[in-house]
Write a structure and sequence with these properties.
This protein is 38% helix and 18% strand. It is α/β, with parallel strands linked by helices and 412 residues long. It has a six-stranded mixed sheet, with helices on both faces. Strands 8-7-9-10 form a four-stranded parallel sheet, sandwiched between helices. Strands 12-11-13-14 form a four-stranded parallel sheet, with helices on both faces. InterPro entries: FeFe-hyd_GTPase_HydF, GTP-bd, HydF_dimer, HydF_tetramer, P-loop_NTPase, Small_GTP-bd.
């Protein structure tokens, strides 16, 4: 359970006023002293993440947040951080101080959660201080129009009922989608091309590669792993051609030249574009590339923060390749980790990584924001395949996306 990647867990965020008992609730749910608890209002200043397991949901990420009634300049910044958590929340829990009842802050956060179509559960905390908690629970359900349960984080009363409501209200599509398993058949042979260069971490594979290997095995496929420098010799040694070759997008040109046309070819980044976001949405960015001119502002967004190498993909290679395509220098800005600009209107194009470190809701939120502003977004793998003239070929494993690309090209 502890080795399940953060981005692959259901994100359950806990919201409420200061001293409503959010941190105490996390400790009660996890049965550990995970979150700092104090009678002083505003003890939690930044979102706190705790990995745990709630059966039958499985691995989840519980997020503790600052109080929505925080005050002062710093308080306002904390509230902004708290509301940003909604961008990655799969299930929201609103903690209400039972001694004070439903507040304006509680109503506002429930309305915001509903507006974003996030499942939500209400918790009336501190019922050990109340004589008639059942009536307050009923009134809160009628007021907020959500499932509500009364709990005491001191005695543990109601915690198991809360877990039941969390399971009941969890998003219906919480189970993991396939990364590549739905594209292959049992016993299909998949070759993974993994460059080992200065950017490769010492002694291990990167997360997308590991997850693809596991997904292939889960779907009864077979896989081999080679460096791009050994691919040609490896394919020549095989008695039977593999069904598919999956490569790091940076090696697309070399791998495409080596891989026979009757073997499916795609990249880890393109698989994750579908797994974590919406592959079809990224294709709309293809159209935007043709209209770019030198000086246009472009955002390059990466879901992780890592040490930049001298020939880094996001800060060096992609800008170099895209500048060559446009015929001049574009004006680049970068966002990494959980950071993502609120104002997207100044950008002509957003280029996004495979997002292996982000959960799907956060990726879809970013795509939705860009869509509302009519800012096209393209994925690393799709962009690199397009620049190398092999986009149709690398989309062959995804018939729906291939058909959409043809339609986009036709409209142009």
């Amino acid at each position: 359970m502890q080795t399940v990647p953060k981005a692959n867990r259901i994100h359950i965020a806990i919201f409420g006023k200061r001293n409503a008992g959010k941190s105490s609730l996390i400790n009660a749910l996890t049965k550990q002293s995970v979150a700092l608890v104090s009678d002083i209002a505003g003890t939690t200043t930044d979102p706190v993440y705790k990995a745990m397991e709630i059966l039958p949901l499985g691995p989840v990420m519980i997020i503790d947040t600052a109080g929505l009634d925080d005050e002062g300049t710093l308080g306002k910044l904390r509230i902004e951080k708290t509301l940003e958590v909604l961008n990655k929340t799969d299930l929201a829990i609103i903690v209400i101080d039972g001694t004070g009842g439903v507040s304006t802050f509680d109503r506002e956060i429930v309305n915001e959660v509903k507006k974003r179509k996030i499942p939500v559960v209400g918790v009336i905390n501190k019922i050990d201080h109340l004589k008639t908690s059942e009536k307050l629970v009923q009134q809160s359900e009628e007021t907020l129009q959500i499932d509500v349960v009364g709990v005491s984080t001191v005695t543990g009363h109601g915690i198991e009922l809360l877990k039941g409501l969390m399971i009941k209200n969890a998003p219906q599509d919480w189970e993991e989608k396939a990364i590549v398993g739905d594209l292959i058949n049992a016993k299909d042979h998949i070759v993974l091309v993994v460059p080992i260069d200065n950017a490769a971490p010492k002694g291990r594979l990167i997360l997308p590669q590991v997850q693809v290997i596991r997904d292939i095995l889960d779907y009864e496929g077979m896989c081999s792993i080679v460096k791009e420098t050994e691919l040609e010799e490896f394919l020549n040694r095989l008695k039977q051609k593999p069904f598919m070759v999956i490569t790091d997008s940076q090696a697309f040109a070399k791998v495409a030249a080596i891989t026979p046309l009757d073997i499916h070819l795609t990249s880890f980044s393109m698989l994750f574009a579908r797994y974590k976001g919406d592959l079809n949405s990224y294709l709309k960015g293809v159209k935007a590339i043709g209209s770019l001119v030198p000086g246009d502002k472009v955002l390059i967004a990466e879901g992780c923060t890592h040490h930049r190498q001298s020939d880094d993909i996001g800060t060096v290679k992609i800008p170099r390749w895209l500048n060559e395509k446009v015929g001049g220098s574009l004006d680049y800005e970068w966002a990494s980790g959980g950071g993502f600009p609120k104002d997207l209107t100044k950008y002509k194009l957003i280029i996004h990584c495979g997002a292996c470190m982000l959960n799907r809701r956060e990726v879809l939120y970013r795509l939705s924001n860009a869509g509302e502003e009519k800012i096209p977004v393209i994925n690393y793998g799709i962009l690199i395949a397009y620049l190398n003239g092999i986009l149709y070929r690398t989309l062959a494993p995804f018939p729906e996306a291939n058909a959409l690309l043809k339609k986009i090209k036709k409209e142009n």
